[in-house]
Amino acid sequence: MNTSHYPVQVEHQVPERHTLAVIVDNEPGVLARIAGMFSGRGYNIESLTVSETEHEAHLSRLTIVTTGTALVVEQIKAQLGRLVVVHRVVDLTDQGDAVERELVLVKVVGKGDARVEAMRLAAAFGARTLDATLTSFVYELTGATEEVERFIKVMTSVGLVEVSRTGIAAMARGPEAM
Amino acid sequence: MAETMTGAEMVIRTLQDQGVEHIFGYPGGAVLPIYDALFHQEKVKHILVRHEQGAVHSAEGYARSTGKVGVVLVTSGPGATNAITGLTDALMDSIPLVCITGQVPTHLIGSDAFQECDTVGITRHCTKHNYLVKNVADLPRILHEAFHIARSGRPGPVVVDIPKDVQFAAGDYLRPVTNEHRAYRPQIKGDLSRIKAAVELMASARRPVFYTGGGVINSGPEASALLRELVRLTGFPITSTLMGLGAFPASDPQWLGMLGMHGTYEANMAMHDCDVMINIGARFDDRITGRLDAFSPGSRKIHVDIDPSSINKNVKVDIGIVGDCAHVLEDMVRIWRTSGIRADKEALGGWNRQIERWRGRNCLAYRPSADVIKPQYALQRLQELTKDRKTFITTEVGQHQMWAAQFMKFEEPNRWMTSGGLGTMGYGLPAAIGVQMAHRDALVIDVAGEASILMNMQEMSTAVQYRLPVKIFILNNEYMGMVRQWQELLHGGRYSESYSEALPDFVKLAEAYGGVGIRCSDPARLDDAIMEMIDTPRPVIFDCIVDKAENCFPMIPSGKAHNEMILGDAAVDIGSVIDEEGKMLV
Question: Complex ipTM, two decimals?
């Protein structure tokens, strides 16, 4: 038992994975504010995707995947809400089954059987071929995180040399807009 | 109509339009245009400090004692980095500040230019918000927005970093007609259904306690008035955090004294045994809760806070109400009055009798002495001899701070300035200067320790320059007392580096600065010496030589709960009170 005068870590709850959509002013330093808040308060970022979504209104949308207990996730949302540049925070996981996709580029290098197998596997996953040389391919795949993970895993055995991933873009299902 | 002027002139005009009368600062290369604009006007008075940390603490004292936004003006690089401690202090204690920093010209940003630092990068974590202004056209909006953000919602420090070329550039100045912000909209009114539920819970309470904090002070004098009304209406006992002292009068019979690590026995026992806790504007800080898993185990908790992130951060509560204290208190008072709710008088009677028994322990008692001045005695006499005056107390950080919180009795809000969250030694003297600047005729006393005071001693020079008759009341025990107390408790009495060797002669030091020095080591002569200090219309350093071995009690030792606090009588054997694990984590 911890008998500190400082609050002890109370981990009665299991960590959960949450996907948050955050609408922010698109201005210099906004990503540093968000990322700094996470690192400063010891929260996890599993994935972070950011881009301007409404050019005229100077708004950007961040999709942040984080893990924490229910209390920690509530605190993350509240701390995001405190930042002056943040317009809205929506917990897509709380809202139900959101659509989540990410894009991956993989480069495979090989000859002979491995090369043929790489082509077959890419076709089986529905990956697009973006570049080909006599000894290499660059494939593009868009899918849920698990699918991307599986693709990377199988390509590893047929000559994968490089991976680039975007992180997750997510949206709630149904007719409601956020 | 927009007027054309330089960026530097816009800064001064904004200060005038915001009603700013005093700013605290220190010039340097990157703010010279603003200092030049300052030179050409008389409305805004500048107080030249001796170190930028002092400027920020002075502005904090000014803000805390007036309810206005404190304003700081410093240069780039070292000017900005010296301000960091003060900004962090203001963030932790929710003090409204606007700090204007100079910056190297925009074309040199990132080139490691002379006196360049990444001010917005460095201050991002110690401000409520910050700006780097790259275009003079944005400057009027940003400056006014900075004031709005600093004072509204949960107040805090805002930095506006202005490159020197932007200060020289000409542009149109127009005061924005509205404070409406694109994204920032603090919630002021509390949710009425939750407030009703809270009032019903309060009415059903058998052992209730109000636990209030600095949020009540920040909400303004009307919040303190409403708190007094609600407390008297309900008949509930009330305690407060260090930051909340003065919101409720200490002379009132319902007052339990401060709670927490060095709070009173009755306040902490009431917190532990209550069945309904009403937290208004406090944040369940670890110095308050002690051991979290043993914190007030049998109570249902109501929490009113303007910052949604404060609710359920440290302690899970039953009813969280996001809103400004004054607004929520107003609703609570109205609902209590109009719904014909009555507190359970019989249960309250029993609860009050229990509280009286706890009070009977006389937890602040100490062994008096005729030979040496006990620090508690010094503060009791200071309290007694200043109580009929308009007195403001600031403190440094350490034992003297806790004793001041225990023995000085505050009847009004905004009279008590102390560094609570950050615990900044060196806060008290510059804060006192800020207070005295705003209240020229008041008695302003910095209760200090001989170690803390040396951290911003240079500000004595500021006090002398502006004829600010602040009183520095040093409880001189030649030790960093709180460090020594913990070393006694936790480290076997090995007083590693906590003895203040080679102290200056404080009387001569006062005289060297152009002030007045008084020394007293005799309890019998103390009253006369204090009166001499009060009657001296100049800055005074009072070197009060006190008992070197005295410890600050009561105390909740590390790793213990509220109902396991140790009292002064146990002082002989306090080394055994904390277990090994607790020693790791004070």
Answer: 0.89
